[in-house]
Amino acid sequence: MDIKKVYGDLGDFSPQRLAENNKAQQVAAKQSTETAQQSGDKVALSPQARLLGAALTVASSAEDVRAEKVRSLKEQVQSGTYKPDIKKAAANLLREDLSMLKA
Description:
With about 100 residues, the protein is mainly α.
């Protein structure tokens, strides 16, 4: 999957933040290599694997700001009072399909 035209503040994934993270990972890898040389085991991670690890770390430590909304929707579904806006859902589906055709 290709992600094109990413705009806006990338927060923890900004180029500067990634460079700092990469440097820290290189230091950790060097220390790990020194330890591994003593024990004879060695593990090497690709840059993509390190980036995925950093992304998972940030995602798992992120605050869940929608927890209250999810709880509320669950209660509505369980009680049978949830009434979704069908027109809005259909419009979102069509917009998503059109954006995939343009890509």
